[in-house]
Amino acid sequence: MEAKPQVSASSLVDEQVFPGDVVLYLSKLAYQTIRVGGGLRQDDDVISVTKAGKLKFSKPNKYWVESSHKRYVPTAGDNVLGIVVDTKADNFLVDIKGPMLAFLPVLAFEGGTRRNIPKFEIGALLYVRVVKAIPDMNPELSCMDGSKAAEYGHLKDGFMFETSTGLSRTLLSSPTCPVLETLGKKIAFEIAVGLNGRVWVNAASPSVMVLVANTIIQTELMTPVQQKARVVNLLQKLQ
Questions:
Q1: C-alpha closest to that of 228 among 189, 194, 184, 165
Q2: Edge-to-edge strands of the sheet including 46-49?
Q3: Buried b (16+ CB within 10 A) or exposed e, 172-195
């Protein structure tokens, strides 16, 4: 029998990978439980790549392939920004930039009952979590996640703009993205980032919202040092 190549749990993290590349052999790991995110698939004990991009890892056990695409492929566990496009008796139909509309059950809210079903107008922007994502089926959404429930729901006011999915992941990275860190030290604003390439910003004035949005978009391909320099420059223009 041909020996399996030795692939460690971290050898390909932050490296460019391509469809067919083997990321992990579960039988080679001391632990067997991992979370497989977008761009990866599991066949028996083999985790392999299904789309080109950069392999990423977040503690304790999640792997995914990060690629800068406009099109979003829903994955269970993703936090996304969705737009209500229709309402039904039992659920809301929501556009999350995926191949199909997602549905949000009317009871999938903290404390949700038939007596206090939320009402959203067409076009309302929601911060939601993908709970089911099965190929060729409508993804299911929720606004409940235990202690994090307060984070989900209707995003009122503010300004929403679209980015690549890769930039969205960068904005959500740890440590804090240099752009958001530098902006946050100088101006006050709220931000919600969806892994589907949508970002919502709210601030006391429209000029601040536009500044934050433009800064995020313009600095996507810059190094951290360049990003901080650009932010300082834009903040000076605001004053």
A1: 184
A2: 22-25, 46-49, 40-43
A3: eeeeebbbbebbeeeeebebbbbb
Q: What is residue 60's three-state secondary structure?
A: coil
Instruction: Report yes or no: 44 and 24 within 8 Å, Cβ to Cβ.
Output: no
Neighbour count for residue 144 (Cβ, 10 Å): 16
Helix (H) or strand (E) holding 215: helix 206-218
Q: What length does the chain have?
A: 239
Strand order in the sheet with 16-17: 16-17, 53-58, 62-66, 35-36
CB 69 within 8 A of CB 166: yes
Tell me if 153 sits within 8 A of 126, measured CB to CB.
yes
pLDDT digits (tens, 9 = 90+) for 166-224: 889 889 887 788 899 999 998 999 999 999 999 999 999 998 999 999 999 988 878 88
pTM of the complete model = 0.73
The overall longest dimension of the chain from CA atoms, in Å, is 69
Strands 53-58 and 91-95: unpaired
Distance CA 162, CA 71 (A): 11
Burial class of residue 47 in the structure, from the number of CB atoms within 10 Å of its CB (0-12 exposed, 13-18 middle, 19+ buried): buried
